[in-house]
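Quick one:
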Amino acid sequence: MLSGENTISPNVAFGTTAVNRPTFPTDIAHDCFGNQQTPVRGVPNLGPGSYNNEEKTTFRYVLDHQPMSRRGYTFNARTEQRKTFEAKIDVPSPDTYQMDLTRLPDKKRAFKPFNGAAQRFSTRAKSADTPGPGNYECDVKQNRQVHMLHSFGGRAKLIPAVKTKCTSLNIDKCVICLQKPIGDYYQYRNEILCSNCFNFNWQWQEKFKRTYLQAFQKVRDCSYIHDHAGTSAKIQLIDDKTTKKLQRKEAYLSLYWP
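Output:
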């Protein structure tokens, strides 16, 4: 077009011609604005209420259209085809389980007018096996716990209620009756007391005072765990798991029956 010539613009309104002009929602401009904006794909004139979501999002639609393997679920599984869930329609309605509120309740005819012979109070337990309120000890110590030996960074170890002496030959004798103790006995330093002498002196304080007897500790030999046969070697009679279980039970029972 030469300079000085007048251009004649046609009197045509925008969008009235048959030319398919690109617009923004569906097309983008070839510039910086078009690089930043994403065009609308699909059918722009379709509203949100025009989709059949109730048909495409049901559980049965997903089972019918999801990809299924003919080799089973996982590796080395069954090779038969998967079975889809069938809809059950022979089920009762929710109101079937509700009781009929319009039905009159069944009433038992009274033996006497106005139920005059009915029992006023409920039946109480008349058995003598149930202890009374005064038989319980309310002032005892509650929440008793087994004593444990803790160390920084290490495991907690149980402090046994009865100390076990591992010796090949037990030569301990009671300082009062001069006899070898049978079963558990008490020891404080080099003094040994059998159970009978300890209980007698604890009650009557004949040779030792009760304050001195509190320092004694209950001990026993290792004859129930080991068999030394007169040597320093030992043959284990009970495994460690059973021994720890018995020590834990004994430590717990000693809190209530020392």
